Amino acid sequence: MNVVDIIAGTMLLAAAILTSYRALAGPNTLDRMIAIDTLIAVSMAGLAVWAAYSGDTTIVPAIVALSLVGFLGSASVTRFRVSDDE
């Protein structure tokens, strides 16, 4: 189980690094919003891997809270988005 946790953590770290690049270099606001939403999903997966590794179930409410923050953030940006046309 330890090898699986290390592999999952490494893959999530690589995903977070690539997504952070997209968030910083995104050409418009929708690319950045998708990157931030993906970072939230990667952090939720990281917390789930940590909960499986440690056997601690008190992290589950944090995962639920992060999913709510991700949904509300995506919905609010979608609703109040201003176009990027210059």
From TrEMBL:
Q: Where in the cell is it found?
A: Cell membrane
Keyword annotations from UniProtKB, A to Z: Cell membrane, Membrane, Transmembrane, Transmembrane helix, Transport
- TM segments? 6-24, 36-53, 59-80
State the annotated membrane topology for this chain: Multi-pass membrane protein
Q: Matching NCBIfam families, A to Z?
A: PRK07948.1
Family of this protein: Belongs to the CPA3 antiporters (TC 2.A.63) subunit F family.
PANTHER family xref list: NA(+)/H(+) ANTIPORTER SUBUNIT F1, NA(+)_H(+) ANTIPORTER SUBUNIT F
State the name under which the record lists this protein.
Cation:proton antiporter
